[in-house]
Structures are given as structure tokens and as C-alpha cells.
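Whiteboard transcription, Tuesday session. T.W. wrote the C-alpha cells on the left side:
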């Protein structure tokens, strides 16, 4: 199948691209940075997802909307408007089989930076709209809402032992997810899954359920 992954140069996006490549799919990565992935089935496009001059790419089977920013003045423009821009261009078309949106656990909890939370909450709502739009093609649309993931974005926390311990204690399983776990879930939701659509999948090591009952 032909897979388009945005934000494919590092972290979750790179793990997803590599997962599909390991299964011999054709992967197109799109990012504002150059890619280090070297594979005969990989093609890289250096482009901003907010661009009004996106290249023509025909017959995309699976679209993975992963690109995004955090706690910047561009959270709404990139995370929400850019994702809509990409999806309207490549996702809502007869050949599509599945679309995944990378939302965030904070879309449910609200516990993060204001514009980031708003952008991710908007993604979950837009995902449901897309599910309605592509159902006529027999295609699925879902979002993945991860809690904290061990990526370069969170390096400042991981390298601070006290801060890292504090945030781990906010999860039931006392750990964070790895990018490869998100990639595995993405692969299942797009390739194996046939009946789940319009759903936001929470993967947060039990952070949402963590509570202290004092009587």
C-alpha cells in the first residue's frame, strides 16, 4: 500500500514510517526537515503541511497525520489547520483505506498548554467528521491520543531525575510509551482494523485513571 506520513523525520513519525517500511509498504514522508531514512521504498518530501502549494500525490491508501508543534504561537495553525489541509488534499478521496490522526491525552484531560490542548481537541472532533466523510469508501478514520512518549521533545524531563520520577508517578504503570508502541498501534488501526472508526484511542499508561482516594 502507499502510505503518507507527515512529521516523518523523528520521534513517533519516524517510528511509524519505519514500521510500515519493515512490512514492505511504499512510504512517503513529509516534513519541514530532511529525513535520515534510507530505504528503496521511502520517498521524502520536504514541505510544510500548511502550504497552499502541496505536491500532487495520487492514490494514497493510508494517511498518517502526525506532524505537529507544541507550546508555540503556531499550535492551532500547524496542528489543526495544517492537518485539515493535508487531509482534504490527500485523505478524502475514493482510494483511501484508513486515516489516523495523532491527537493527545490532553485533548481529553485539558492538562497542557492552552493552544496545544485546543488544537488536539479540534483534531479529535475533525477526525469524527472525516469518519463520516470517508465511510462511503469503506474507509476508517481514528485518532490516537498518547500520554507522554519517550521522544526528543521530552528529553529535558527524562534527563532531570526528580522531574522524571514525578511525572512517572502520575501514571498507573509508572512508565511512558516508546515511539515504537505508537507505531505498532498505528499499524494495527490502519492495516488490521476493519471495523473501528470515529474513535479516539487513549494510550497513556493509565495516567487518566490515576487518582488518590483519601477518606
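and on the right, the sequence the group agreed on:
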Amino acid at each position: 500500500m502507499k502510505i503518507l506520513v507527515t512529521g516523518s523525520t523523528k520521534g513517533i513519525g519516524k517510528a511509524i514510517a519505519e514500521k510500515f517500511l519493515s512490512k514492505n509498504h511504499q512510504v512517503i514522508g513529509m516534513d519541514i526537515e530532511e529525513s535520515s531514512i534510507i530505504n528503496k521504498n521511502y520517498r521524502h518530501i520536504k514541505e510544510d503541511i500548511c502550504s497552499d502549494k502541496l505536491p500532487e500525490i495520487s492514490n494514497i491508501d493510508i494517511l498518517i497525520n502526525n506532524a505537529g508543534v507544541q507550546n508555540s504561537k503556531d499550535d492551532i495553525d500547524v496542528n489543526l489547520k495544517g492537518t485539515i489541509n493535508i487531509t482534504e488534499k490527500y485523505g478524502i478521496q475514493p482510494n483511501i483505506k484508513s486515516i489516523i490522526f495523532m491527537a493527545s491525552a490532553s485533548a481529553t484531560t485539558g492538562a497542557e498548554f492552552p493552544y496545544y490542548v485546543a488544537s488536539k481537541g479540534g483534531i479529535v472532533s475533525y477526525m469524527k467528521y472525516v469518519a463520516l466523510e470517508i465511510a462511503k469508501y469503506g474507509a476508517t478514520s481514528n485518532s490516537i491520543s498518547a500520554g507522554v512518549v519517550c521522544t526528543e521533545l521530552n528529553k529535558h524531563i527524562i534527563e532531570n531525575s526528580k522531574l522524571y520520577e514525578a511525572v512517572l508517578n502520575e501514571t498507573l504503570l509508572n512508565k511512558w510509551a516508546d515511539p515504537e508502541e505508537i507505531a505498532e498501534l498505528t499499524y494495527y488501526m490502519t492495516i488490521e482494523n476493519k471495523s473501528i472508526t470515529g474513535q479516539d484511542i487513549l494510550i497513556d499508561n493509565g495516567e487518566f485513571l490515576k487518582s488518590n482516594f483519601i477518606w
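Someone added at the bottom: Strands lie at 2-6, 26-31, 42-46, 62-65, 98-102, 140-146, 200-203.
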